[in-house]
Write a structure and sequence with these properties.
Layout: E1 17-23, H1 27-37, E2 44-47, H2 56-59, H3 64-67, E3 77-78, E4 91-92, H4 114-124, H5 131-140, E5 142-144, E6 172-176, H6 182-193, E7 209-212, E8 214-215, E9 217-218, E10 221-222, H7 225-230, E11 240-243, E12 247-255, E13 261-269, E14 274-285, H8 288-298, E15 301-302, H9 304-309, E16 316-317, E17 329-336, H10 343-346, H11 350-363, E18 375-379, E19 390-395, E20 411-418, E21 426-428, E22 439-441, H12 448-465, H13 468-471, E23 476-479, H14 487-497, E24 498-500, E25 525-527, E26 539-545, H15 560-577
Parallel strand pairs: 1-2, 1-14, 2-11, 5-6, 14-26, 15-16
Antiparallel strand pairs: 3-4, 6-8, 7-18, 9-10, 12-13, 13-14, 17-20, 17-23, 17-24, 18-19, 19-20, 21-22, 25-26
């Protein structure tokens, strides 16, 4: 078989024998495919259920508006009705294309807080997950704009960030945004007046502060993981094969002489036939926090009673598969303003739209280069907390719901989310069919603590907006409305207006061997059965799960870059074993 060209890597199931099979060409899968195909003499197959990332709206930053809710790029999931959301269901976007969620997400580069990784180390019993140990893995593939020119970055900046000219492999580009808004500058000043310090770097382990987000873009274009890690490197390697529009139906398990299990490959639906692909060394499941537990359960790996009830024969009883779902729920508050431009009025006229398009065409800047959120703030819902537990995404626009038209009046949106929710949900198959979406039940606002944080965050938002820096724009609360003041009313209103910020994690969590809900060990290998007191716990040979589902607890910020860090670590472990 001839080597796939950089322009057209193989997409059909031409050969079926490989050393490594990577399931999912998204955030983690693209990096895994890059690192594994760099191993000499190892044949690597990358399987992606979606199509190639050749849809133009993937690459224009504002194109997320046309990718989310679009079957070309999105799995089109919906959540189950949630009591905490007053019976509502939510759209639950997940990327279905090369690059996965990095092709449709908000492009925000965010690592979280050092304490997140200390908690992971405690929960797994593995100190290598602490911040000091994972920081080099973030830096390994980072290409930060402040290090482009010698002397441009502040003193000591290079100890926190990587660059392609300073030892980093440099695939993951991080840039400053190519726009600013007066109303966002005023919000940042108001936040400082309310006690939130200014920040010009959210990624040094303590992200408390307010400032503009840095984004995964390159010269005004979205920078997804397909561009970063697959193109052109992997496409030019003779040992790399790519199948797109190919959905993994289940994993193949083999019982060995000592009674242990080994994953030997996958069954894949190509759209016309079911193909078996064999992996002589390892299958790496990178299908995400929704897709990975679904594939495991369809393969007979998960809570035995649930699988039997859904028509699947249990092979490995792992109660934690599909459990422990965590997500960031954002409460979208909207304030009308006077005497300042917002995107609402700019984009609601033909002349305004023409100017926006012209600016992007000529400069790759302006509203078409916008991430969904431009200004960020991390702060505390109450002053006695030791760390920031809230994140704001502030936008110079407003609308009734995602996908709806912009309002005709000038306004800004201040979305606030609880960084460390205590609510836990589930992802479970509904039946034995691989092409049936699973039941996704995040159980938002199901704990007293989460409801109180929601109330406190709404009150804090009002306090920020009431500061002098915003007074010249006469902010008027449009949503939820100043008529709601009591805790009970605010908690109920949070359920009415809150939406996901698209950060599901935890559904195949790593943990200690004696944790009955742990699915993976600290090196992301799947446990071969439930925890039994006093007995050693084996892992399934030849199988790892490497995606955000492996996080035992959610990071304090956007989850895309922490997922890349986890993939970088797993790739190094596999390479060392090879």
């Amino acid at each position: 078989m001839s080597a796939p060209s950089p322009q057209a890597p193989a997409s059909a199931a031409a050969e079926t024998q490989f050393d490594y099979i990577v399931v999912g060409g998204g955030t983690a899968g693209a990096l895994m495919a890059n690192r594994l195909s760099a191993l000499r003499g190892k044949r690597v197959l990358l399987i992606e259920a979606g199509r190639r990332d050749d849809y133009h709206w993937i690459h224009i930053p504002v194109g997320y508006l046309y990718c989310i809710g679009n079957p070309r790029t999105d799995w089109l999931y919906q959540t189950e009705p949630a009591a905490g959301l007053n019976g509502r269901t939510l759209r639950y976007p997940r990327g279905k294309t090369l690059g996965g969620c990095s092709s449709i997400n908000g492009m925000i580069y965010m690592r979280g807080q050092a304490r997140d990784y200390a908690q992971w180390a405690d929960l797994t019993g593995d100190d290598s997950w602490r911040w000091e140990q994972v920081l080099p893995q973030f830096m390994k593939h980072e290409d930060h704009w402040k290090l482009d020119t010698p002397g441009q970055a502040p003193s000591g900046f290079a100890q926190w960030h990587g660059h392609r000219n300073q030892g980093s492999t440099g695939e993951w580009r991080v840039e400053k945004q190519r726009l600013r808004w007066d109303v966002l500058d005023a919000f940042a000043q108001a936040a400082q007046q309310a006690g939130v310090p200014a920040s010009d770097d959210f990624n040094q382990g303590n992200n408390e502060g307010v400032g503009y987000f840095e984004v995964n873009q390159k010269s005004g274009w979205r920078w997804n993981t397909a561009k970063a890690f697959l193109r052109p490197t992997c496409y030019g390697r003779a040992n790399f094969e790519l199948w797109t529009s190919a959905q993994v139906a289940r994993l193949l398990l083999e019982t060995q002489a000592d009674g242990s299990r080994r994953c030997t490959g996958v069954q894949v639906w190509t759209g016309t036939e079911m193909v078996t692909a064999q992996a002589s060394t390892e299958v790496v499941l990178c299908a995400g926090s929704i897709g990975s537990p679904q594939i495991l359960q369809l393969s007979g790996i998960g809570p035995a009673e649930l699988l039997q009830a859904r028509g699947v024969t249990p092979l490995i009883d792992l109660p934690g598969v599909g459990q422990n779902l965590q997500d960031h729920l954002q409460i979208r508050t909207v304030f009308k303003v006077q005497g300042v431009k917002t995107l609402n009025t700019l984009a609601n006229s033909l002349w305004g739209k023409a100017l926006i398009g012209l600016e992007y065409a000529l400069k790759r800047s302006g509203p078409m280069s916008m991430a969904p959120s431009q200004l960020g703030a991390f702060t505390r819902s109450r002053p006695d907390l030791a760390h920031a537990n809230l994140q704001y995404h502030v936008q110079p626009l407003s609308l009734d719901a995602f996908g709806e038209p912009l309002h005709t009046f000038n306004a800004f949106t201040a979305s606030v989310c609880n960084l460390n929710p205590s609510s836990r949900g589930t992802v479970n198959i509904k039946g034995p069919r691989f092409d049936e979406a699973p039941a996704i039940a995040p159980n938002y606002l199901s704990t007293d603590d989460d409801r109180q944080v929601a109330v406190d965050s709404l009150r804090l938002t009002r306090r920020i907006v009431a500061q002098p820096a915003l007074s010249r724009y006469q902010p008027e609360e449009f949503k939820p409305g100043t008529q709601y003041q009591a805790d009970g009313d605010l908690a109920r209103l949070a359920g009415d207006i809150a939406t996901t910020i698209f950060h599901p994690v935890g559904t195949t969590k790593m943990g200690r061997a004696d944790d009955p809900m742990a699915v993976l060990d600290s090196r992301l290998r799947l446990f071969d059965g439930p925890a039994v007191p006093g007995q050693a716990r084996r892992t399934v040979a030849g199988l790892r799960v490497v995606d955000a589902g492996a996080m035992p607890t959610i990071t304090s910020g956007n989850t895309n870059s922490p997922t890349l860090m986890m993939a970088e670590r797993a790739a190094a472990w596999i390479a060392a074993e090879a």
